[in-house]
Amino acid sequence: MMELLTTLSTTVSTTLSTTMLLPLTFLLPLLGTLILAFSRGTLGYRSSALVGVGSIGLAALVTAVIALGFAADPAPQNMTLWTWISVGDFTPSMGLALDGLALTMLGVITGVGFFIHLFAAWYMRGEEGITRFYTYMNLFVFSMVLLVLGDNLLLLFLGWEGVGMCSYLLISYYYQNSANGWAGFKAFIITRIGDVFLAIGMFLLFSRLGTLDIAEILTLAPKAWQAGDTTVELAAFLLLGGALGKSAQLPLHTWLADAMAGPTPVSALIHAATMVTAGVYLIARMHGIFELAPVALYATGVIGALTLLMAGFAALAQTDIKRVLAYSTMSQIGYMFLALGVGAFDTAIFHLMTHAFFKALLFLSAGAVIVSCHHEQDMRRLGGLWRKLPLAYMGFVVGGAALAALPLVSAGFYSKDEILWQALAADQQGLLIAGLVGALLTSLYTLRLIIGTFHGVAQSDNARHAETGRGLAHGLPLLVLAVLSTFLGAWITPPLSGVLPPGPGEGVHAGHGALELMAAATALAGMALGVWLFGLKRSWLRPAKHGMGAGLWQLWHHAWGFDILYDWTLVRPYRGLVALLKSDVIEGFFRLLAKLVRLVHLGLSRTQTGRLRGYAATMVIGATLILLSLALMTQGT
Amino acid sequence: MELAFYLSGLTAVLATLGVIANPNPVHGVLYLVVSLLAVAMVFFSLGAPFAGALEIIVYAGAIMVLFVFVVMMLNLGQAAAEQERLWLKPRTWLGPSLLAAVLLLTLIGLLWQGNTQAMIEGGGLTAKGAGTLLYGPWLLLVELGALLLLAALVTASHVGRTTPVAAPSPAPRDMPTQAADQPVPRTTPGDKPPNTGGKPPNTGGEEVS
Amino acid sequence: MNGVPMEHGLVLASILFALGLGGLMFRRNMIFVLMSLEIMLNAAGLAFIVAGTGWQQPEGQVMFLLVITLAAAEASVGLALLIQLYHRFKTLNIDVASRMRG
To answer: Does C21 touch chain A if contact means CB atoms closer than 8 Å?
Structure first.
């Protein structure tokens, strides 16, 4: 380990050569995975955690060095490790590409990932299978880094499937409870639907352009197609399909809320900060295709807007704090899709980054609350915790402020405001209004979450006997992420200028101030309304318990009933079919055939008497019949 | 010539009837010789003297002598003829005869339809023609015939062997097979002995459906 | 009358064949069974010769030679089997040798 560090430092001091370091970012997590996987449970809790957290920590360190080198020389870098396969003209390489976009993602994955890993060391203490947990987590980071660093779509797809698999493994981490297994199934199957679209999109691009290299695709595409060409629209829609599945957008969004069955650090890392934003990354990465496909791009924005509204309303009616955060994640990714849809790719990535910070903070704080309250995560059974859990409360407040875009002091304000401004600049009033309504909803459910969890009186014994979390692994991630969730985090500007095209609002300032005021006012109004409704005048919510109000609450609680709809239209028919096939309808036919053959066989074996004369007679009968029929036939003609 | 054909044909049919209806094996063989000679006469009358000569020498001469030898060797007496007479009841032969008659009628019907119009005037088929054909394009036939005879020779000398007279042992499936097939049972000496005389074990893998 | 119609020769062959067949089916004594077989083979040979002379083709004779060869082989093997049957069962009834059923 020391040798590695010295090697690192010498490399840093002499050349700052990123080409040497770049592979380390995914090789270190892979090494961690392998060590943990092959230890076969011989490692104790501490050593497992040390390997699991240490590998990501080193990867984060390497990323920091790379970032420093990149700051000195912001030129995109490519390196080809080896050629993956060589079949005729098809030679996809195992190549890495580092540019501003990849570096931003890399920083989020390793940086935020490191703090989440560290927090998990506190969160998972006393649980079984910590080695398994860190194996999957490291494997996830490995896959995710491959996803963002791959310079061709094939490598990206490898990482894409890898994170999907890790997501499945970690959602069903508590496998003794079959519901968790079903949640994992659901996530896996629904994202797989999207992946099929992505794969077909890849095939289409390859068949038309003859390459899977992303840079080559982006240079070849404008020469091959006019803007709005059917083929490129189709390709863009297929890529969008993949992104929708991974990023839990309409209509493939239903898995994310159930994915909360996994441990909370998993929700923070995979289902908030990194994996679910892979769709945003994909679209930003393939921006050249989407720019040629205005319809697909517009559809992206519309889907984002619809998702953010749908998820915002759904988040209002959840009682499980993790589900609230899950729907808010959907909603925030909806914002990113909205930004992508108006062509502001860099803004989407900026929001992706800040969202990673504050949503990771919120999830980790939620994890702190859950562990402290003996795995109680129902908001109705919590309350009054702010004195007992000051650090978690701080995390919720800072993260919630960023989520609700509290003006000026939160990171979320800067990124969300930028998105709304880009929507206005792109002249998309519909999307802008959706974004503003979404902002109002966001403030409302954030306040509902914070007030419901931390204020009022404790509603259950679990909440009354909350234990305050202690230790570095508990405190440090929350503090660092809290700092990053404030305006300090918004100071980190992703170096995207050379990679992604400027958004429509670039260089325009008319009306920006007014919009900022409007957005700020919306957020503040939402917060005030939230405090009023959920804190001061709870009686105003009484209509929500009867009649129409209760119906609406139920509708939102079940997220507009998508699950039920899919259950009735897709899952049940499929399972019915499967049940039918299980009882072997077709097999029955063949069984009948076999029985018939057997019957005939039994009948024929009766004629096997062993009497020679009988055989001769039978032969004569047969010959006579044949000759007779022959005679009749010749007579007929 | 034609008269010879019809007369010898009639003789052949009658002699054949005598073969199949005769209870005495020796008489049957003699009738068969007559029948074969009659057929040889038919060959002569049709103008195939080589075939006729072969018929007499090989069929009536060699093969029938073989039959006579066997019959003599078995030394079947009057008892065998009585047994034959018992077996030759109308109930036994009526059905098969009817079947054969139907086949005959069918054949004749087919022949009638064939309408070949060919007349056999005799002559033409000499041994020379057959010889050139046989040792020319059809040489393979000679080889096959030789092979067949060799095979028959080997088979006959093997099957006809009677010296190691194995007693008519019971068929294998009537024998108790457990002792050979199954491992030594783990029963203690005082226990009931394993089932040896009962049904053979169901080894056919009969599917229970 | 100028020559014999070919049909007549073939009809004679058919009659002989049918008689042999009948004997094959209703005789139980194996000697008679073998003799019936000889009759049938002989009838087939007759048909060949008739056809050969009818169409003036020497192939008829060639096939007749083959039939005779076949008959000789069949007779020798059949008689060997007969002796074996007699040794085993002390009878010539072929119905007793019916153990080899399906």
So the answer is: yes
